[in-house]
């Protein structure tokens, strides 16, 4: 890492901490009963909407009802989006003459955006109209992100409050998230992006003649408004095929920096929201530091691997791996984006992941295999981390012969059994899906690069969808019947198998009585807890997938080294 890169990273860290801390406190106050907008115009609008929809914001839902309402609301969103995708050629603002999507692709796309995955098996520039983008996909970017944040806030109530029968009201949490958090912040980002050159118009595609005399069609559209929430809500779907490498979406180094910051902003802020709700900011800082250690270490390793170049190409420029990178942002601007987009559930890219060196591509894969709990998605990252914290405390309590307790609540065997459901369940489904795909000729026919790299393509696609990331190695043809339906199933499992068990744990914990005068509580702050939590993360996340990981990125790296030695006569 160069001196400039190190300065860049430190400045990024400074802004991340500063903005996360204050946004985290703001999110905390948003969900308080005496929120400052309660008697303002927004409060009156809020009450009007609740009355019109016959919603009682004071209703305290049990975890079962909260989960049921969440799922049924997502089902409703799916059907609305599916109808739009199946009828877009008959709707206005279709300058691209986009056809109705096939049933399997429409199912995949609707599920993708509802689950906050934004896996795009379609060509964004030609297969969706402006109206579909604005009426179908952009609202889902808000509502899928809001669903994750609302669920997270409900879960935090369960972990931090006592002797209550319910964990909150889904509609209340959803409204607060959309109107007081996502909409205003997205508006600010959208205005900034427009000022920097991100397009926001309703023009049809423009035809130009290049200097070589070749006719070229330049796409247009209302992109800035979607870019803002796409990144802020860790959705990741691109308005154009090139995603954030497209100059209309990411015009310069400044927008690239702001986009990286916006991806990680809310996941980082929610940690401090948890600190305010639990009245234990030291514990929140401990969680944040644990996340940051993983983030920093993986960033430095990733950058080192890309700066080492390809040993088969000794004459590469400065020995850097520039293949697939956006030269406007520099190597570190591309690698930092790739790390941030895979430690969260964003999936947006500003460079070609398939062009990464094998081990660097393996780190992007490794980030998702950890369950995206290193900051993670909006809401999903924090409640995923809470699962691992509960397991860490339980295991540590067993080792020292002390009753496991967390924030004054007993962690018993029932809670641990529920906590293992998403961790074990997702791992089993992921590995079985990889195995089936590797033995299916239909699945393997979609591989763009056969051999070891093709194995990684399949492994990456399945991991990306079940972890609700949505990024792709790019060379796998995902728009086939097999992959459309498989990834649809994986996205649903990844989303709901993760959130519902944690809501159940929150529903159990919120009924607990607070234990007073506990003289020897297990320490949840400081270096020892960071080490124990980090070890749990590595054991649960890394060791489970080590054999598969070795067959993909590691083996490809060894093959390159072996071929390089043969070419250059090294024994």
Which terms would index this structure?
571 residues, mainly alpha, two-stranded antiparallel ribbon, 18 helices, 2% strand
If you had to describe this structure to a student in words, what would you say it looks like?
The protein is mainly alpha-helical and 571 residues long. It has a domain at 383-525. It has 18 helices and four strands. The strands form two sheets. Strands 1-2 form a two-stranded antiparallel ribbon. Strands 3-4 form a two-stranded antiparallel ribbon. A hairpin with a 5-residue loop joins strand 1 (206-209) and strand 2. The mean pLDDT is 89.
In terms of topology, how is this protein built?
Blueprint: H1 3-30, H2 41-52, H3 63-87, H4 103-114, H5 130-160, H6 170-196, E1 206-209, E2 215-218, H7 224-232, H8 253-278, H9 281-307, H10 330-343, H11 358-369, H12 380-400, E3 405-406, E4 409-410, H13 413-439, H14 441-444, H15 452-466, H16 481-509, H17 527-541, H18 546-567
Antiparallel strand pairs: 1-2, 3-4
What value does the average pLDDT take? 89
Question: Beta-sheet strand percentage?
Answer: under 5%
Number of helices: 18
The main pleated sheet reads as: 2 strands, antiparallel
Shape: globular
Number of strands: 4
Task: Give me a quick take on this structure.
Helices cover 62% and strands 2% of the residues. It is mostly helical. A two-stranded antiparallel ribbon has the order 1-2.
């Amino acid at each position: 890492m160069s001196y400039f890169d190190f300065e860049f990273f430190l400045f990024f860290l400074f802004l991340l901490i500063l903005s996360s801390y204050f946004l985290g406190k703001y999110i905390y106050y948003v969900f308080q009963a005496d929120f400052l907008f309660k008697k303002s115009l927004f409060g009156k609008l809020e009450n009007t909407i609740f009355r019109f929809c016959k919603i009682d914001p004071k209703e305290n839902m049990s975890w079962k009802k909260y989960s049921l309402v969440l799922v049924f609301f997502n089902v409703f969103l799916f059907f609305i989006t599916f109808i739009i995708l199946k009828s877009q050629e008959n709707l206005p603002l279709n300058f691209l003459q986009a056809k109705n999507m096939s049933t399997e692709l429409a199912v995949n796309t609707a599920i993708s955006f509802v689950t906050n995955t934004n896996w795009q098996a379609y060509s964004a520039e030609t297969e969706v109209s402006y109206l579909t983008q604005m009426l179908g996909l952009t609202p889902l970017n808000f509502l899928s992100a809001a669903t994750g944040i609302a669920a997270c806030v409900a879960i935090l109530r369960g972990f931090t409050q006592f002797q209550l029968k319910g964990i909150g009201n889904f509609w209340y949490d959803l409204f607060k998230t959309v109107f007081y958090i996502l909409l205003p912040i997205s508006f600010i980002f959208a205005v900034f992006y427009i000022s920097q050159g991100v397009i926001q118009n309703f023009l049809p595609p423009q035809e130009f003649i290049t200097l070589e005399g070749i006719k070229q069609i330049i796409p247009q559209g209302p992109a800035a408004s979607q870019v803002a929430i796409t990144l802020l809500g860790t959705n990741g779907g691109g308005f154009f095929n090139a995603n954030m490498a497209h100059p209309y979406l990411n015009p310069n180094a400044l927008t690239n920096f702001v986009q990286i910051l916006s991806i990680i902003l809310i996941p980082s802020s929610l940690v401090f929201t948890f600190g305010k709700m639990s009245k234990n900011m030291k514990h929140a800082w401990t969680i944040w530091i644990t996340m940051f250690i993983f983030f920093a270490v993986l960033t430095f390793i990733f950058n080192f691997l890309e700066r080492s170049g390809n040993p088969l190409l000794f004459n590469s420029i400065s020995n850097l791996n520039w293949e697939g990178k956006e030269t406007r942002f520099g190597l570190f601007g591309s690698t930092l984006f790739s790390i941030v987009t895979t430690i969260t559930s964003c999936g947006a890219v500003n460079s070609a992941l398939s062009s990464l060196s094998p081990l660097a591509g393996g780190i992007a894969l490794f980030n998702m295999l950890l369950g995206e709990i290193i900051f993670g998605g909006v809401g999903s990252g924090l409640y995923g981390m809470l699962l691992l914290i509960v397991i860490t405390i339980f295991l540590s309590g067993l080792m020292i012969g002390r009753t496991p307790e967390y924030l004054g609540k007993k962690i018993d065997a029932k809670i641990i059994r529920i906590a293992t459901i998403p961790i074990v369940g997702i791992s089993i489904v992921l590995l079985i899906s990889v195995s089936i795909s590797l033995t299916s000729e239909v699945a393997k026919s979609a591989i763009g690069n056969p051999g070891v790299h093709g194995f990684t393509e399949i492994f990456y696609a399945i991991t990306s969808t079940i972890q609700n990331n949505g990024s792709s190695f790019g060379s796998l043809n995902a728009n086939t019947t097999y992959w459309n339906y498989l990834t649809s199933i994986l996205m649903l499992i990844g989303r709901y198998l993760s959130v519902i068990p944690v809501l159940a744990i929150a529903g159990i914990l919120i009924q607990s009585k607070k234990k007073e005068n506990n003289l020897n509580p297990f320490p949840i702050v400081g270096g020892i807890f960071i080490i124990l939590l980090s070890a749990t993360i590595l054991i649960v996340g890394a060791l489970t997938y080590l054999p598969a990981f070795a067959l993909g990125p590691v083996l490809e790296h060894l093959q390159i080294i072996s071929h390089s030695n043969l070419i250059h006569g090294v024994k």
